[in-house]
Amino acid sequence: RMTTQTMKKTDDGFTVKKTPYGLYTSVDLDGKELVTSATEHQCTAMTHFYLQGLQEAKASYATTKSTKATK
């Protein structure tokens, strides 16, 4: 498990942590590591992008699944 030097909480469902190597890693509410980046700003921005993609993929899958069920 990764040890961290600092941790910054966000209101977006994830936390950004600074690793001992000077990188930043986002972690979701379940403790799953999501994105690692060189700066805190990049890590936060890319985590938002990643989570948005997951939401859109789930919505697309649900729409596709319901469309196939009605045929």
Fill in the keyword field for this structure:
1 helix; four-stranded antiparallel β-sheet; alpha+beta; 71 residues
Folded structure, characterized:
With 71 residues, the protein is α+β, with helices and mostly antiparallel strands. 44% of the residues lie in helices and 27% in strands. Strands 1-2-3-4 form a 4-stranded antiparallel beta sheet. The radius of gyration is 16 Å and the shape is elongated. The mean pLDDT is 84.
Report the β-strand fraction as a percent range: 25-35%
Strand runs, count: 4
Total helical segments: 1
> Main β-sheet, in a few words?
4 strands, antiparallel
List the helices and strands and how they pair.
Elements: E1 6-9, E2 14-18, E3 24-28, E4 33-37, H1 40-70
Antiparallel strand pairs: 1-2, 2-3, 3-4
Short synopsis of the structure:
With 71 residues, the protein is an alpha+beta fold. The protein has one helix at residues 40-70, and strands at 6-9, 14-18, 24-28, 33-37.
